[in-house]
Amino acid sequence: MPLSHVWPMSAGIGTNGHLFVSGFDVVSLAAEYDTPLYIYDEPTIRTMCKAYIDACTACGATDAIVHYAGKALLNTAIAQLVHAEGLALDVVSGGELALALHAGVPAGHIHMHGNAKTPRELDEALATGIGAIVVDNFDELRLLIHKTNLRKTPFPIQIRVTPDIAADTHQHIQTGHHTSKFGFPLEGLNQVGELLRNAPGLRLTAVHAHLGSQIFDPATHTAAVAVLVDQIAYLRNQYGIVIEALNIGGGLAVAYTDAQKAPNITAAVAAIWQALRDACTRNGLPQLRLELEPGRSIVARAGIAVYRVVGSKTIADVPRWVHVDGGMADNIRPALYGAKYTAVVANRLTAAIFERFAVSAAIVYTGNGRIGHFFTIEAAEDEFGTNVAVHDMLDEQRGRPSRTVQCASLVEFVRGEPTVSFDVLLVKGPIAIRKTFVTTPARKAAILPARLLGRAGFVF
Question: Is a pLDDT exceeding 90 seen at residue 239?
């Protein structure tokens, strides 16, 4: 029995009433590997990668480049998967750059983003010869001019510009408006042009923008295209800077609840491409190459988090609290801006529904304790030990970069091949969940089943 469109494409309900993904019983996986347990459906990720590639081909943007935004989720297997599907890769730290190279992604297919890159990270990007550094501010630009002054071959850069467009999304995840911490303001492009006039070691190849996250209407992107192409034409006419591409970023929304519907990727890309063609014609420019940077919309639907009920509390006239072994460290979005999620009781999907529960976390600070619960579910009962599965608690949580902490956290990666059960991937990233491990050989042997030791995909 299939589930709604918010769950992985392979998700369904087994004859035993359990949640299944790619043919695997989620309850059985939780029993074997304990909780919290993070599961990604590989076929869903591959399908979403292909959707963007096919959308570019369908609208005629045959030279378009699709970058996977690694901040959504990045580990060795994900990097290898998106590269195999024909996507380039965006990283936002030196640690992520090292991981991408370790995964076999060619340096020329990697872009480095970030509003606070360290001098060391810039040195690593320059030495590695990545495809481009996306420059975010004047301090970074001046530092790069200094570092590349003696280069014989100019190093490719893009500049991130804030087009002063506020996307129709929560203000905490708007990044294209004038007061955003990211990018050069429109009025700063004169200064950018003057600096690049005297920067023989740099070559500006594209203008970049990222407008925010959870954008349901691609009209936001098409409006930004018009603004940014005007700036590209201005830089050419005023400073003789010939730019090859427009990188419009990512941000297309995903569905977290049954009531939400994600934008049609084919239609959205076609609208963006048409807006780019029209803007180039209007400004007398040769056709610019389109670059896209989806992240959340690639991996979000593929992911679920599995928790275990460890307690409850009953109060008159309110939904009963059910406590799970997760917390705010797993996903801070509900506390930050009221994000909503879809959850099910993973081992009772076919049971009669007669009670509504408010699910709370082991790690949480919510003031009065009533507004900060994870989510609400409807289920037959909340028996101790019941598994609660939550759609996409993971994107941009497990993938957040870390410069100083490199820990190993357990992630299940499932695929539908009958001869392969799943890989356990050790993720380089921040300490974000209870299940974190010290990666000494002895400790690794103690926590991982013998049949998994030595398999490909381990990253420390």
Answer: yes
CB 138, CB 191: distance < 8 Å? yes
pTM of the model: 0.81
- Give the helix ranges, DSSP H, for 76-158: 76-84, 94-102, 119-128, 138-147
How far is Cα 70 from Cα 48, in angstroms, rounded to an integer?
15
Mean pLDDT of 323-327: 77
* Residue 412 included in any domain: no
Amino acid identity of residue 113, one-letter, is H
**Which residues on adjacent β-strands are paired with residue 343?**
390
pLDDT in tens, 115-151: 889 999 999 999 999 999 999 999 999 999 999 999 9
Q: Do both 202 and 348 map to the same domain?
A: no
Backbone φ and ψ of 82, nearest 5° = -70, -35
What is d(CA 132, CA 383) in angstroms, rounded to the nearest whole number?
A: 53
Tell me which residue range forms the domain holding 78: 42-299
Cβ-Cβ contacts under 8 Å for 198 (sequence gap 6 or more): 145
DSSP code at position 207: E
Asked if residue 179 is part of any domain, the answer here is: yes
Domain annotation covers residue 72: yes
376 forms beta bridges with: 358
Does residue 17 belong to any structural domain of this protein? no
- pLDDT tens digit sequence for 143-183: 999 999 999 999 999 999 988 675 444 444 445 445 566 68
Between 15 and 322, the more confident residue is 15
Angle among Cα 88, 39, 171 to the nearest 5 degrees reads 65
Closest listed residue to residue 304, CA positions, set 272, 326, 279: 326
Amino acid identity of residue 251, one-letter, is G
